[in-house]
Structure formats: structure tokens, C-alpha cells
Amino acid sequence: EIVLTQSPATLSLSPGERATLSCRASQSISSYLAWYQQKPGQAPRLLIYDASHRATGIPARFSGSGSGTDFTLTISSLEPEDFAVYYCQQRSNSLTFGGGTKVEIK
Amino acid sequence: EVQLVESGGGLVKPGGSLRLSCAASGFTFSSYNMHWVRQAPGKGLEWVACINSGNYIFYADSMKGRFTISRDNAKDSLYLQMNSLRAEDTAVYYCVRDSSGYYLFDYWGQGTLVTVSS
After folding, report:
1. How far is it, in rounded angstroms, from Cα B69 to Cα A59?
2. B4, pLDDT greater than 90
3. Does position B86 have pLDDT exceeding 80, yes or no?
4. With an 8 Å Cβ cutoff, is B61 touching chain A?
């Protein structure tokens, strides 16, 4: 099973700041990585697929990069609605999620 | 509008069984792969199982043998039969649509809570 490790577990930032989230795979997954956002009491929402492609309707402040085993989700300037938990997910070999990164207001 | 509405959750004793249902609308159900994803209280997401548009099925290793995913395209419905339930199966179970066969999750239901406790 491919294990995805997300870091940090919690990121404390202020609105307007840049957020950088990491996801590391236990083996190469090419670019088969997606990112999801989940707010309290809500279902997750697809943000990024295939490492760097924004899903429909996702603002340009969200961007993804990486390939192989190391991936990054960047939120260029945090809006109040961006404070949430973010998960990465791989589809290279079966389907697994990372443990999540919580982006909280500092 | 795509809608996925889960039902069937509730309280069940360890060793018991439960069948979850998901009613889909707003898209051609038969053309899409469908998944179950669960989330234990306060924890992360865990993929459970997939049934694709051709009825090919696969499961997370930890779910094999106890859980059975199925679909009824005539009823636009997805199901998850869960047997031999354990406390660690306590979670919100989400019905999820696959994005055009790419094993990405583009639409999610609101989830149904399964609690396994004596």
C-alpha cells in the first residue's frame, strides 16, 4: 500500500499569508496526486488533480506542484474561507489518502 | 444538479451487519464509477471500495471479506453491505462519484454515520 505523509499536521497562518502544504508518497506515484479541502461539517471538495491541474471552479490562488514522491499545495494568499483541512490522495496504485493538514487562523 | 443521498446508518453492536444505500440523481448513474469513502470521528479520510461502470469491484485491503459494494443502475443506487462490524468501523460513510473514470472524487454525499458499540 502506498502511504502518503502530509506535513505539517497544523499550519497557523493569518489571512493574506502564503500557505505551503506538503505530501510525500512512500513510493513514486508519477503525477497521480490530488488535493481536497474539507471544512467542518462538510464533505471534501476536489481542488487539484494530477498534481497541478485545478478542478472546475477552483480559484487561481490554489496551485499544486511535484511529481514522483514529493508534492506541494500552495495557497498564494489565504482568504478567510480557506481555513480548513487539506488532504492529498493518490490513484497510482489503489487509492489512499494522506492524514491531512489543518490550516488554522493564527 | 448532481445529488448523492446516503441512508442506512445507525447504531449497531459489534459483530452486527448494516446495509448503506446511496440514491443518486442529476447525472447518468450507470456511466460513472462509484465509491464509498469513510471518515472516523475527528480523523482523516479512508477509501473503502469502488464499483466501476462495468461492475468491476475493488476494495481497500482492510475492507476485503467483510464489506460488499454493489449498484443497481435501474434504481440509480449504490449500496454497501457491511458485516462483522467492529468498533473501528465507526465512521461517517460517504457515497462518492468518480470523476469520469479517473479515480478522483468529484461529488460527495453528506454522509451517513455508522456507530459500532455495545
Report:
1. 35
2. yes
3. yes
4. yes
